[in-house]
Design brief:
single chain, 320 residues, alpha/beta, Quinone Oxidoreductase, Chain A, domain 1, Rossmann fold, seven-stranded mixed sheet, six-stranded parallel sheet, 9 helices, 30% helix, 25% strand
Length: 320
C-alpha cells in the first residue's frame, strides 16, 4: 500500500512516499481504508524532532474511512462501517489500524473529509470550552489564530454558549473568516493585549486559548484579569520558554495550564460524549467545519510546508 514516512527527523523534505505492507488488525483493533487524513501540528513536532518518535516513522493519528477488517474481541463495529478517530496510528497511508475503543461511528449527513477534519480539532475545541475552562454566558475570552482549524471551531462553540469572543488573525482574508464564525472583535497580533482591554472596558479576560505559543504567550498573560486562565494548547510559532511562577503572581494570581487531548479522553463514556456532541453539531448544521486545503497523500511534505507557513485556514487534509 502507499504510505508516507520519514526515516529521520528534519524538515518537510524528510517525508517520502513509499510502499509498505498493509497492516493487520490485532485484538481490539479495526483496519480502516483511509478516505481522508488530518494534518496537524503534532505531526510536525514528531517529524522535526520536537517530540521523540522512533524512525522510520509514518505520521498521522486523525482519519476517517471505512472498516475493512475487524480484530478479535471487537464489538460495536463491523466491516463496512464508516468510522473516525483522532487516536489512530500511521494514518498517512491507504490503510491504518485503529483501536476500536478510540473509534466513533460517523453519522449520516457527515462525509468522510468533514469527519476527518473535525476529529482532533473538534475534540480539542470541545475539551477547552467544557473542561479546561467552562465557557458560559458572560465569559470573556480570547482565541488566537481565529481562522485556523481549532480557532474557527472554538469561536463557534464559545459563541453558542453566550461568551464574548475576541480573536487574533494574521491577514484580511483570515479576518473575514473569523468574523463569519461569530467573533465579537477580530484583532491584529501587534498590541492585542492592550486592544483587548480597551474593548473590554479596561478589564482583562477570563480565559485565553493560545495555540500559537512563543510569539503570543506574554501578551496572553497580559490580557487576563486577576485569577484568569491561560490555556496553552499548542505552539505553532515555537515552544514557550520556562515561566517563572512569580510572573503568574504578578499578573494577579493567574492560572497557566498546558492541556493535551489524551487527558480529556480518559474513559469510554467521556470519549463517546465528546464525539457525540461534536459530530452531532456538525450533522445538524450548528457547527461549520472549514476545510482550507486538501493535498494528495504523496504530497504530504507540501501539506506540512503550508501548515508551518501558517498560510492555511481551517483544516488541512490528505486525501486521494
Amino acid at each position: 500500500m502507499q504510505a508516507v514516512q520519514a526515516t529521520r527527523a528534519g524538515g518537510p523534505e524528510v517525508l517520502e512516499a513509499v510502499e509498505l505492507d498493509r497492516p493487520t488488525p490485532g485484538e481490539g483493533e479495526l483496519l480502516v481504508e483511509v478516505a481522508a487524513t488530518g494534518v496537524n501540528f503534532v505531526e510536525v513536532y514528531r517529524r522535526n524532532g520536537t517530540y521523540d518518535v522512533p524512525f522510520p516513522h509514518v505520521p498521522g493519528t486523525e482519519l476517517a474511512g471505512r472498516v475493512t477488517a475487524v480484530g478479535a474481541g471487537v464489538t460495536g463495529f463491523r466491516v463496512g462501517d464508516r468510522v473516525v478517530t483522532a487516536e489512530g496510528r500511521e494514518a498517512y497511508a491507504r490503510f491504518a489500524v485503529v483501536p476500536a475503543e478510540a473509534a466513533a461511528h460517523v453519522p449520516d449527513g457527515v462525509d468522510d473529509p468533514t469527519a476527518a477534519a473535525v476529529a482532533l480539532q473538534g475534540l480539542t475545541a470541545h475539551y477547552l470550552v467544557t473542561s479546561v475552562h467552562r465557557v458560559e454566558a458572560g465569559t470573556t475570552l480570547l482565541v488566537h489564530a481565529g481562522a485556523g482549524g481549532v480557532g474557527l471551531l472554538l469561536i463557534q462553540l464559545a459563541k453558542a454558549r453566550g461568551a464574548t469572543v475576541f480573536t487574533t488573525v494574521g491577514s484580511p482574508a483570515k479576518r473575514e473568516l473569523a468574523q463569519a464564525a461569530g467573533a465579537d472583535a477580530v484583532l491584529d497580533y501587534d498590541g492585542f493585549a492592550d486592544r483587548v482591554r480597551e474593548l473590554n472596558g479596561g478589564l482583562g479576560l477570563d480565559v485565553v486559548f493560545d495555540g500559537v505559543g512563543a510569539t503570543t504567550w506574554e501578551g496572553s498573560l497580559a490580557a487576563l484579569r486577576p485569577r484568569g486562565l491561560l490555556a496553552l494548547f499548542g505552539a505553532a510559532s515555537g515552544p514557550v520558554p520556562p515561566i517563572d511562577p512569580r510572573r503568574l503572581m504578578a499578573g494577579g494570581s493567574l492560572v497557566l495550564t498546558r492541556p493535551t487531548m489524551g487527558d480529556f479522553l480518559q474513559t469510554p463514556d467521556e470519549r463517546a460524549w465528546r464525539y457525540r456532541e461534536v459530530l452531532g453539531a456538525v450533522a445538524d448544521g450548528t457547527l461549520e467545519v472549514r476545510i482550507g486545503a486538501t493535498f494528495p497523500l504523496a504530497e504530504a511534505a507540501d501539506a506540512h510546508r503550508a501548515l508551518e507557513g501558517r498560510s492555511t485556514t481551517g483544516k488541512v487534509l490528505l486525501a486521494g
